[in-house]
Amino acid sequence: MHDVIVIGGGVIGLSIARELASSKSVLLLDRGPTGQGTSHAAAGMLTPLSEADDQGPFFQLCRTSLAMYDRFVEELQQESSLDVAYSKEGLLSLASSEESAATLLRRYEWQHQAGFEVELLPPGEVRKMEPLVTVPVIHALFMPGERSVAPRRLLNAIRESCFVRGVEIRTGVHVDAVSPNTVHFGHMTMQAAAIVIASGVWSAELNGLNPRIPLSPRKGQILSLAMAPGAFRRMIRWGHSYLVPRPTGELIVGATNEDAGFDSSVTPAGLGRLLMDAQAISSYLGSYPIVETWTGLRPATPDELPILGSAAIHGVYYATGHYRNGVLLAPITATIVADLIEGHKPRVDLEPYSPSRFESN
Ligand SMILES: Cc1cc2nc3c(=O)[nH]c(=O)nc-3n(C[C@H](O)[C@H](O)[C@H](O)COP(=O)(O)OP(=O)(O)OC[C@H]3O[C@@H](n4cnc5c(N)ncnc54)[C@H](O)[C@@H]3O)c2cc1C
C-alpha cells in the first residue's frame, strides 16, 4: 500500500507526486499516458503581473508560485537532465485602442506605485526592443520579471524527476470513483492514507466526490509558427492574443477562450482570429510556416479560482480547477498539497480556494 495516490498526471498531479516523494511513497495513476491533457496544450506563460488589476489573494498566490520557479526549474533540470526552455526575457503589453490604453495605464499606475517591476515605454521603444512588431501602439508596458517555460518539456522533466525520486507511475488506469482512503477503477480498489484528485477538467466526473465540484471546460485554440531563433525575444500581449517565443525560434500564438463543452476541434473562426491578431501585431508573420495547431480544455470553476483543500471524504484532497494558470501555479500547488498531507499548516490561506465554497447554504 502506498502513502499517497495521485489521480492525474498533468502538470499539477506530477508536481504534487514529485513534491511528496521525498517523504512518502507515492503512486500516480493516469487514464492515458501522463502529460497529454490540458497541460500539453498550454503556452507556458508565467505572467501574473500582466493581467492583474489588484493585489488580491489570487494575485499573491500566482506571485508566490512564480517566485518558486527559479528553484523548481533548477532542480528539475538537474534531476532530469532536460532543458525546459525557461525564459526570463519579460513581457511587452501593447495597447492600440483608447480603451486598452486606458486599461494599461491603470495597471501601470497601481503596479508602479506598489513597487512591482513595470515600465511605461515610449511607443518608439517597442520597435527597438522587438524590431518585427509593426502594430501602431498608443501605450506599451514592459514587465521584465514575467517568464515563460515550454510546458511539454516541463512535463517531461517533472515526469523524469518523479522517477528519480521514486514515484510509481501507472498509465492506462481510468479511476471511476473515490471513497474514504480508496480509489476505484473497474473491479479493482486501491487504498492509501491520502488520495489527491488532480484530474484537471475531468475531476468532476469522478463518482463519490463530496463536496461535488463545479468544473467546466473552457476551450483554447492555439498554434505555432516556425521562425528563426531570436526573431522575437519577449512575450507580447495585444488585445486577447499573445505571442510566446521559444529559444528554438518557434513562436506560440494563443489563444481562444470558448465555452464549447468538451469539443476540442480546431475551427476556422478560432484559428482565423489568432492568425489575424498575429499579423496585426507583426505584418511579417503572415509569411512564416504554421508548425502546429491544437486545442486544450482549461478546467474552470464559476469564480475562476482553483480548488485546493481537503474533501469531506476521509483522506481525499482536491488540487484542480487551475483554469488559465496551472503551469504557473504548479510549484505552489505542490507545496500546499504536501503541507496538507504532511499535517503542516499550509503557507497560504486556503479559504478562497475551499472545495466547499460552491455549496449553497
Ligand atoms: C490554450 C491554453 C493555453 C494555456 N496557457 C497557459 C499558460 O500560458 N500558463 C499557465 O499557467 N497555464 C496555461 N493554461 C492552463 C493550463 O494548461 C491548465 O491550468 C493546466 O494544464 C491544468 O493542469 P492539470 O494537471 O490540472 O490538468 P491536465 O493537464 O488536464 O491533467 C489531468 C490528467 O488527469 C488525467 N485523468 C483525467 N481523468 C482521469 C481519471 N478518471 N483517471 C485517471 N486519470 C485521469 C488525464 O489523462 C490528464 O493526464 C493554458 C491552457 C490552454 C488550454
Task: Annotate the secondary structure layout.
Blueprint: E1 2-7, H1 11-20, E2 26-30, E3 45-46, H2 57-80, E4 91-95, H3 98-113, E5 119-121, H4 123-129, E6 139-143, E7 147-148, H5 151-165, E8 168-171, E9 177-179, E10 182-185, E11 188-197, E12 216-225, E13 235-238, E14 241-245, E15 251-254, H6 268-281, E16 290-300, E17 307-310, E18 316-320, H7 326-341
Parallel strand pairs: 1-2, 1-11, 2-8, 4-13, 11-18
Antiparallel strand pairs: 3-7, 4-6, 5-6, 9-10, 10-11, 12-15, 12-16, 13-14, 14-15, 17-18
Bound molecules: flavin-adenine dinucleotide (FAD).
Flavin-adenine dinucleotide binds at residues 7-13, 29-32, 34, 36-39, 41-45, 173-175, 198-202, 206, 220, 222, 254-255, 296, 298-299, 320, 322-328.
Instruction: Please give the domain count.
Output: 2
Structural class: alpha/beta
Order of helices and strands: EHEEHEHEHEEHEEEEEEEEHEEEH
Percent strand:
25-35%
Main sheet properties = 8 strands, mixed
CATH architecture of the largest domain: 3-Layer(bba) Sandwich
> What is the CA-atom radius of gyration, in angstroms?
21 Å
For this structure, the CATH topology of the largest domain is FAD/NAD(P)-binding domain
**Name of the top-level CATH class of the largest domain:** Alpha Beta
Which regions are unreliable across 5 or more consecutive residues at pLDDT < 50? none
Q: Helicity, in percent?
A: 25-40%
| Outline type | globular
**How many DSSP H or I helices?**
7
User: Could you name the CATH homologous superfamily of the largest domain?
Assistant: FAD/NAD(P)-binding domain
Count of DSSP strands: 18
Distance linking N and C termini: 38 Å
